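Thread title: Can someone regenerate the structure for this chain?

I was given the following input by a collaborator and told the matching structure tokens would be attached. They weren't. Posting the sequence so someone can regenerate them.
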Amino acid sequence: MKLEVLNIQGEKTGKQIDLPEEIFGIEPNNHAIYLATKQYLANQRQGTHKAKEKGEITASTRKIKKQKGTGTARAGSVKSGIFRGGGRHFGPRPRTYSIKLNKKVKSLARKSALSGKVASEQLIIVEDFTFDAPKTSEYLNILQALNVADKRSLLVTDEQDVVLTRSSNNLQRADVTRVQDLNVYDVLKSKVLILSESTIEKIKESFA
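Best answer:
Regenerated them for you:
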């Protein structure tokens, strides 16, 4: 499978890059994509929620009414959850929401996400480029040249590029990440996936 390589002016360079079929040309596995997305979103949760229960409330422990004869339910103290200001019954406690996923399933999910972008013609290959200094307008010009300025785009570079990242920070629909941090959720969220030319080799190495 081969795709045209474009320059930052959106023009064809005459070069074609070979995309490995085992990564970009498989039949997408929707269930693997679902599991990987579920894991990613679950791992983003802090799990630091906490509500005070009856034993953690600071209040008087005086018995507020006699045990029998009132016609209502018995109550031992104002710390009970049935009273305003009392403890909460079965309240949330700190916990971890992280989910374990087999490496093979995660690999299949990433391959499926990349293959889906190729199948839907939402993948663009561009020549390697960088800026001397962060410049939002220059990065926006590139997106406009590629006809993706009005779409949510994700640019993947082979290494961490702070200048490119800062250039895209003020653009609401444009993100930049390195290939090591690429995940299924970000691929699915983007309407257009832009890969720099040298990123393809990095992707091959990570799936080797």
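The longest helix spans residues 103-119.
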